[in-house]
Amino acid sequence: MADFDAIVIGAGCAGNVAAYTLASAGKAVLVVERGNYAGAKNMTGGRIYTHSLAKVFPDYQDAPLQRKITHERISLMSPDSNFTVDYSARELEEAGNESYSVLRGPFDQWLAEKAENAGAEYIYGIAVEDLIIENGKVSGIIAFGDEITADVVILADGVNSLLTSKAGLSKKAPAINQVAVGAKETIELPAEVIESRFLCNPGEGSSWLFAGDCSNGIVGGAFIYANQDSVSVGIVATMSEVLKQDIPVYQMLENFKQRPEIAPLIRDGKTVEYSGHVVPEGGLHMMPEIVGDGVLVAGDAAMLCMNLGYTVRGMDLAVASGQIAGEAAIKALDAGDTSKAGLAQYKTMLDNSFVMRDMKLYESAPEFLETSPMMFRGVPEMLRDIMTPLFKNNGEPRQHVMQIAMPVVKKMGLFKLAKFAMKAVKSL
Amino acid sequence: MIEITVNVDEKLSLNKFNVDEENAHIKLKEGVKASDPEFLKLVKCCPAALYKVPEEGDEPIFDYAGCLECGTCRMICGETILEKWEYPQPTMGIEYRFG
User: Fold this and answer.
1) Residue A370 has pLDDT above 70, yes or no
2) B47 is in which domain, residue-wise?
3) Residue ranges per domain, chain A?
4) d(CA A182, CA A275)
5) Whose CB among A205, A266, A284, A424 lies 3.0–4.6 Å from A226's, allowing a Cys bridge?
6) Using 50, 70 and 90 to split pLDDT, how confident is the model at A355?
7) How far apart are CA B38 and CA B32, in angstroms?
8) CATH of A179-280, one of 3.30.9.90, 3.90.1150.10, 3.30.70.100, 1.25.40.10
9) What pLDDT is stored for residue A309 in this prediction?
10) CA-to-CA distance for A59 and A20, rounded, in angstroms?
11) CA nearest A182 in B: which residue?
């Protein structure tokens, strides 16, 4: 007889939701979190699309979310120009479609409280050192020298999981062209200052993604999310790409903050935290095995994340995979079979959900970004060379748009551009 | 030469850390030099700027105390110049208040 029906490792989006799902069905669940509270080791850019959260918690609007995102901004940044699209649409604000800026410290604690209220037990401040594996089946954990057993173990220990490889489900570490490093500052500003600078109504906020010179022309980008009383400003860059150029990641963030387009947005703000994180950006092809004997993998540990350049998702996938892992574990426990075969329905259920449907749809997006350097160095400059003459009036002879644009486009290569555009619309 | 204008240590000082003075959770292998190309990868990629090249000499500068526990160095150099990469001991390390 095992100590618990299920042990969940990691109190993030996936782990807390898996624990909540299991505990709500009356299962004995233990969550082991290495931080001193849920969220202590977690960070996001970030924004969460709340559709999957709403399915688990109908009262999700009570969660400490920051601002409802009502402005989608995307910028292409050259060394000396910035081209921005600002999009807003009422439909994107409707229930089911909406998204919120979020800070993981408060949010993950809310999720953990939900699971605790449903009956899950939590141990904080202890990292799981190893898994107990008997006859090839994961049957528990070793934490701080103690052995604790369970019929099923759910690994929700994040992108830098040391346990998926111990369970034999993944390589020791992902390839460095599949992962990005991120750095972020949380900068405090009064709510009304944020609303006027980001053009938002009270309680509403904006997402802003930048590509181009902010990552020194390599695959990556910068972001600004408007929170309630702070803004999250950060940079993300694919590790293998950082090695191709000379600016350290932390200096990229500083350079971004100093840009004339960015500095006024954060002026007089007070940085209150500096955080770093790895983002799994390799998509479908970097996923580990998500089902093993006695074990399931969810959230970032399963590398469930997608970066399409104009939109980045991870937490909605984590929440959904946590819920589905919980449901699959319940079925397996009820059937008395938590072997690999007994747990296999997790994969089927995930395949049939939006999670794997979207992961598969955007299968080639990571490759597109990796093999399209012109998106980060080339296209932003081309836009500048077309846009600047449109706005420049200095008494010198003007030209029709066609005369301005054609030489610029020709310089880039019409065929090359067409190929790039074709690849973009097919993979994104 | 890239100009470094930012003081990352100052930014790290804003964070809440419980530093484990007794136990380094990340260790470089013996004999690694600051000019080692593998070490220079970490100088560029560690968001906390914990890997530094000294102004003089070739002894690498590394301090685990401001580690953000992201795993970047493990993914890049876990098989080359890192002796070990573990999460910090219980209750130790970074504690994000905002995240």
Assistant:
1) yes
2) 8-95
3) 4-66+103-173+285-352, 179-280, 368-427
4) 8
5) A205
6) very high
7) 9
8) 3.30.9.90
9) 85
10) 14
11) B47
